[in-house]
Amino acid sequence: MTDFGFSALKIALTREWFELSFISSRVHNEAGFEHIFKLELPERPKIPSRDDPLSPQTFERFKASDGRILDVHQLKSLIFRGGVEPELRPVMWKYLLDYWKWDLSVEENKQRAEKLKDDYYRMKLQWMSITEDQEARFAEFRDRKALIDKDVNRTDRSHPFFRNKENLALLKDILMTYVMYDFDLGYVQGMSDYLSPLLVVMENEYDAFWTFTGLMRRVHKNFEMDQLAIKKQLADLRALLEIVNPKLTNYLEGHDSDHMYFCFRWILVAFKREFGFDDIMRLWEVLWSDIPCKNFLLLICAAILDGEENMIIVNKFGLTEILKHVNNMSMKLDLSKVLRDAEATFHQLAAVQDKLPRHICEILGFGFDDSAGPSKSED
To answer: Is residue 77 a part of any domain in this protein?
Structure first.
């Protein structure tokens, strides 16, 4: 797998854009003068150890007699606290990624899935029916096909599932079919990173495809050419870090690094390159719960950076050194600790939400129904 183009990103995410974005993280007094918002935070609470993953037996207790899912929020809370047991993932991920509907019976979901299966193969036939002569005059299709071929051959090749050429072919077929499903977006490098765990879990192409479309609805803006979604998330991360760790934020600003370029890969593919395959499946299902907030990914980023404050400041890292250090953290992060630290940060900020700037409350969902955390800190 190749890394994403940092130099291209640096051009796209201009200093002027970030300066405009960060205006919202500064407060104006009555005279109209700008000053940096500072807040004394309470001590970060201690978060209990992670729970056991959701089991098939526990999941059964959330089903009505016809299979409809009851108390979805509580079920998602359990997933946030412990993830999902591997044997349950093929079912649970369909719900989390909006392929199966919580409020439909099992029979209704199966009937709906059968129709979507037919839709999948119909779209697959569309691109497979394009002749070489047609393809020669269809540059955009040809370019996307070539990019998919290139990426498929370097996606998770160390995983046993993808040592099988037939499974690599499935990966390509699903991505090509997605091009037909959403030709406006097409294919962009990084999408194969999102698909590969879905295919491993689902084990068939049509279920993998429809869970992938659900996942892409969550993250597709990350892949749009204008990069506005990535820019906003980096700006929001910077604003969060300014509250959580103003010392580190000031250091980054003084070393031309507060644009947060070095977190681009974390956000683009939701830490896919930073954790092993088993950990990334657990992390993603936690994120898909949307608990304690929809931007929990940014809290994870902030918590990791907060923990690296001494390393960065004591060693006087500049942008190049920070980027190298962040990249070297790949496969060395403790997922359970990262999740506890991020959850603790959420509760720390929730305790003073009435004093936080409005845009921070919006990022964290404070004031909305889904903002309440699923667990309470220990005394």
So the answer is: no
Q: CA nearest 258: which of 247, 274, 269, 272?
A: 247
163 within a domain of the structure (yes/no): yes
Residues 192-224: b if buried by 16+ CB within 10 A, e if exposed: bbbbbbbbbbbeebbbbbbbbbbbbebbbbbbe
Q: What is the dihedral of CA 341, 345, 350, 353, to 10 degrees?
A: -170
Question: Structure pTM?
Answer: 0.89
Range of the domain at 264: 39-68+226-367
Is the separation of the CB atoms in 302 and 345 below 8 Å? yes
Q: How many domains does the chain have?
A: 2
**What are the tens digits of pLDDT across the range 144-169?**
999 999 999 999 999 999 999 999 99
Do 62 and 91 reside in the same domain of the chain?
no
